[in-house]
Design brief:
4 copies of one chain form a homotetramer. The first copy, chain A, has helices spanning about 15-25, 25-30, 65-80; strands at about 35-40, 45-50, 85-95, 105-115, 120-130, 135-145. The first copy, chain A, is globular, with a radius of gyration of 15 Å. With about 150 residues, chain A is α+β, with helices and mostly antiparallel strands. The first copy, chain A, starts with 14 loop residues before the first helix and ends in a 6-residue tail after the last strand. Chains A and B meet through α2, α3 and β3 of A and α2, α3 and β3 of B. β3 (about 85-95) of chain C pairs antiparallel with β3 of chain D.
């Protein structure tokens, strides 16, 4: 949608390993059954299989669970661009839920819109995949803060 | 904060039972260890004990999990005012995370700000309780839609 | 960013004239000096020249004015898809401000993300143009409601 | 709504004069006809008279204009707590529009929810006054950034 999609250069060439290590420490992602499926500069994707243990009352994936994976995807999209020794926190986010979160797999993607020394702004999307078809189920805008001198681990 | 806090009259005197039945069907709430602790007209409270299974990488409760309980609290706050036979869905919400979600217990509260036939607007707050002290850790604004003629179960 | 960008078919072939008539009735747009520069199915663009009369204390265009043009752009993007006799209202929106709103011209664009009978979800972007260069200064997520049987005029 | 409403102590006893000087430099507030009516630690109120020059197509005050006054109210609520020599910028905000913005007068109020060295979180409310009755027409959540070493003027 943006005229010039930014090509990001990570400050730390080891960014992908740092994202994977941090993701592995998120007990919530393990409890929800979320999986890190892609990491690139300014980008992260996380997948989740819909099932009753993560559902709301109608059987769809709970909006909070959809939020959890897209919040993490946005946070790690930003984190790919952070210098070594810095840590990431979500300041705020806003989610619109567009369609029932159901299907074979949900894929949450985070995209850095605007990197910065203190704040990083991201966008997120969640698609539901079913029989090879993708449906957009949620969109997000998110603000992250860079915690300098605070390691992730 | 509002000059005249509204006193809501539920359309269905059995609203509390309907909320409890619907909450019991949310597999995600059980998986996260969330508990429904209070229901009143236009109000709902949900509690969660912080623990590694719902944490992010620094050991605090994951922002998505904080969101899950306050989204449900806001949704059920609205649902208390719905007529029999109507169901609730979150259209969107926005969360600001104010302090680390940690302590003995998190309590998420939803408050109806503006009821309506089609849309209901709520506010949410999440407090962390530790040694009898409460800290505000998140605030939410949320839009719900009333699905008439669609039962919750 | 979305895999399959939707191609929208307007319900009313006279959508562009309806948008222009409605825009012309927005006294706020005239007061702010905003101009409707493009209308297409699911899309609308509005331009504004930065000047002291619309500035905040540092001389940049006020965040509320940036919001006014992107709210209108999103609202009219949705309105292009409405049937004759329906009217549009903003339910809510969220804006992230990414860079100072300054330059030769601001261009706010609204894009329909998800049309619906009752609710329409849009995204918005505001770019600042200076010496032929575009800078993204704000992004928006917005929820609109379709007021059936309520004419715009 | 919060258990313990915070009592804020401003870092600069001359905070009210600083707010008034900064507000006077906002050309947009003058163009819209907005008036600063109250300043206190962590609080600010701004009023506006509805009239065709600030209206949308149905004759109500434009959502962007409602946003402009509540964004400024929230920003100055935060600014009351800033040290001398620091400046304020809105990072993001989210508005829910609850009722038509019309009547004799709109009053936008900003309240600091969480002060901080870098980020300040506020809530906002806009009431419409008519024949002595107040109606809540909008609520806001907002994130501000403190620009240290950057004077307002």
């Amino acid at each position: 949608m943006t005229a010039t999609p930014p090509a990001f250069v990570p400050a730390d060439p080891g960014f992908a390993a740092r994202v994977r290590e941090s993701f592995a420490r998120q007990g919530a992602m393990k409890t929800l059954g979320a999986e890190l499926i892609a990491v690139a500069p300014g980008y992260c994707a996380i997948a989740l299989a819909p099932r009753p243990e993560v559902a709301q009352q109608h059987g769809y994936v709970h909006a909070g669970v959809v939020t959890a994976i897209v919040d993490s995807a946005g946070g790690y999209a930003g984190f790919t661009l952070f210098p070594v020794g810095a840590s990431v926190l979500s300041v705020e986010f806003k989610i619109n839920l567009l369609a029932p979160a159901t299907g074979d797999r949900l894929v949450a993607e985070g995209f850095v819109v605007k990197p910065g020394r203190t704040l990083v702004i991201t966008r997120g999307e969640v698609h539901a995949e079913k029989h090879g078809k993708r449906t957009l189920v949620a969109i997000m805008q998110q603000t992250l803060i860079v915690m300098h001198g605070k390691k992730e681990a």
